[in-house]
Give the backbone structure.
Amino acid sequence: MSSTETSTNSTNETVDTTYPFAPVEPNEAARRYAAIAAERPMTKMTMPIGGDVWVIHRNAAAREMLSDPRFVRGPFRTGERAVPYFVEFPDFLKSTIQFEDPPHHTKLRKLVQKSISPKRVRAMRESAVEFANHLIDEMVAKGAPTNLVSDYAVALPIQMLSNLLGVPPEDRPKFQKWSAATLAVANMPEDEVVQNMTELFVYLNDLIAERRKNPREDLLSDLANAPDKDDSLTDGEILPIAMILIVAGFDNTANFICAGVLSLLRHSDQLKVFLEDVDGVAPTAVEEVLRHGRMAIDDTVAGGGGLVPFVATEDVSIDGHLIAKGEAVLVDPGSTNHDGIAIADGEKFDVRRKENPHLTLSYGLHHCLGAPLARMEMQVAIAELFKRLPTLKLVGEPVVDYDNLTTPTVDLPVSW
């Protein structure tokens, strides 16, 4: 089920407001997103898995829903109903904090936020810069061309997350091997994925037990040794936190780094602006990549996407539209980031954009826990790469795996 209509925009052009829509040029996608949002706040869509879901198009409506405690994820976590989505969610993901609701979610989130505080992330920045340059040194020594995904975009987040979790340096090679099983870019056979995931679970359980006895300055130590008795967590509660950070911290951040590099390489005018003041522009450039960058990965953009859905616990009106009790709803950030209302000239990729209330990392209760870390890694990764290799260029077409949950870039061939 979808909506198929036409609308007339401010220039009296007829715009197709069908949603979802087949791949079109990025500027046309932006026009359609704006026309759809002008016409209606949301569309009911039948997903390949899990049935019907309302897809929100307007930025303000999305923020309203994401701030409303009457929308929950418990029925998905318990298996009461399937998650309505484009692909099936792995069972282990449904056991993570991403699918928790208050009050348990509130307790877990408070503890993790202390460990991924802006202060701790700032302290990690120096080591991120050092490791990024180490990876660039290795790429230069090996020589061009190279696949930026495996040689840089994935390697940097893995190193940073190892630091955050407290994985000892001597264990990092095997930790990276096991964690790769959670990555979309791994392309491992199913039996190998199961074996590596099992070994990762066992390793993390052992590391949590070790950090209970001998705490250090890392996230697992913080979670295993909460100072307030009411905040104490069991090993079974800590493990899913570590797992969601591994999945989100590796795959998604690597995707964002690739999107940033591609966005700049495909917008020569913005690359010129960026190169004139790399460190000064990096923070706003990263926000613009998060908002708009996926639209630069392909020559065409399909209309249809979304963050993890919720279920309404009662009848709720959002932006004048009724979502009935038991109905599912999700936010399409591609649409809300280009709704023609919240962000002026949203079709343009502007690395100096100041007002940028995008929803790529969600909002409210379920705003991405690792957002400070992801932003820092993106800023460092993109800035250091172009400072060292300002002549970076594509030497082939990027390859994206559309059959995977995170639609990762698996090959990004570059030279310099």
User: Anything to note?
Assistant: The two ends are 47 Å apart (CA to CA).
